[in-house]
Amino acid sequence: MQKTLKNDLIFIIFLIFVAVGVQFLFLNPPILSDQMEYYITAIRFPHLPDNPNIGSMRIGLELPVAVLYRIFGTSEVAYYTVPILSAALLSVSIYLIGKSLFSRRVGFFSGLWVIFIPNLVQDAGHLLPDLPATACSAAAFALLFTYFGNKQHKRDFASKESLVIFISAGVLFGWSYLIKEYLAILFLLIPLVFWMLEIPYRHLIPLAISMLLMYGIEVAVGIIYYQNPLIRFLAASPRETTGEIQKDVSRIINYFALLLIKDGGEGILMLMGLGVLNSLVRSFKKQKSHIFLLSWVLLIYVLFTIAGLLPVIFNWEGIVLLRLHKFRYWVPILPPLVIGAVAMLDAFFVWIKKSLPQLRISENSFASIFLAVFLSLTAARGINSIKNDPDFIRNGADQYLELRAYLQEHDNPEDIIWIDRDNKRAFERILPMYIRNPFGRLIWRGSTKYINTANLYLRAEEIDQGYFIVDRDFMTPSSSLPSYLYDAPENWQLVFESENKKLALYKVD
Q1: What is the distance between the alpha carbons of residues 408 and 326, in angstroms, rounded to a whole number?
Q2: This model's pTM is above 0.90
Q3: pLDDT in tens, 313-325
Q4: What DSSP string describes 457-502?
Q5: Phi-psi region of 274 (alpha: psi -120 to 50; beta: other; left: phi over 0)
Q6: Which residues of 254-368 form beta strands (DSSP E)?
Q7: What is the SS3 string spanning 105-122?
Q8: pLDDT digit string (tens) for 365-405?
Q9: Could you tell me if 131 and 35 are in contact, meaning their C-beta atoms sit under 8 angstroms apart?
């Protein structure tokens, strides 16, 4: 027993180390999109928007960030910790589920492979709800399978230890809902897990109570802030999009496959497809582990596809219920697909080894070597396709890191940086992270001033001292904007420009 726990700990630490390392290697900078909206909502908590939207009500994502903000302030630690640790939690959870359903070998290679899925790597560091929500649901399943699926100790479902496990799993399931509401569809798998593990259904009660307590947080927020316990559902609204994305039935049905092929190639899709086929065949043979995996895949795929087809069926114009053309929406389907594919490969290599008894190599070594080779080739193909993506910090999207280095060398408490007020050219969202080190300590002690109130801007001559910052990603020429936003006056001196030419700092004198 102790040896088993020690081995598990070694594998878990290794997976965490690799997952965090890959996330850092392919880290994305903060961008002014949904991820920044979640971050701003979190750092302003307990204040919430007067007009709630579904993003501001995803408190399961925002509360941990709010806690980190209270500890570290505006910082990269507060922004990046949740998505990076979520990647590690997903890997570890897949390892534990795969190990419980099949073997440690299947679990380890499944947990390792998911770290290198290129579509996931492309979103490294983005503060978005899909990965954390999936990780929480997977962790809940892993907890149940690991504790109650362990045949090496006598199971006592009425013990205090079991009660803690039921409550903890319920908290994780409930928190996944608080992060992203549609993960509630996976709750339908809970009775299936109880059936697989032969847990009496009456023990669903403590699990359900803890889930309801998590939902109670949402109800309380709705009542306290908006006097409506159902505000999250009322705040939800379909997303606007183009008719091409909305109406193409073939693409809607094949979105996941097309997205997977785009970055991972046909190999990864083929392995996952064969894994699903294998689970389908073995489900007819009443193999519980494959019934569970197949049920998970079908729940997500059928639900998402129906949601994608509803605008077509009812002829809704210009909206979608789920943006299935973005891979992050498909993250919840990855755990069963990864485990199923590795289990299929593992069974195939074990069969080959048994067919060749003359080979002087153990079954475990034989299967492990070939799993490593196959999955390495698949992962390498995917990573190679995205490694030069210009959006990664490693590939030049490090303009704010360069600015931090400049400001650290030119720290002056009397300096001023003029910034645009909160809109799509905003600096009050991103800049505060980079006048501090990653842990939130100030490295530049100057101050910032606004050049505008809504659409009313200062004239260039009214900006008479300090620095003016320009982010060319967002400074699009417009007749409604003053020209100095994208074309600095001649008497402004360029004192800093990032290597990618996107960020510039002018000295105003």
Answers
A1: 38
A2: yes
A3: 777 766 666 777 8
A4: E--GGG--SSEEEEETTT----TTS-GGGTS--TTSEEEEE-TTSS
A5: alpha
A6: 319-320
A7: HHHHHHHHHHHCCHHHHC
A8: 999 999 999 889 888 888 888 988 888 999 888 999 999 99
A9: no
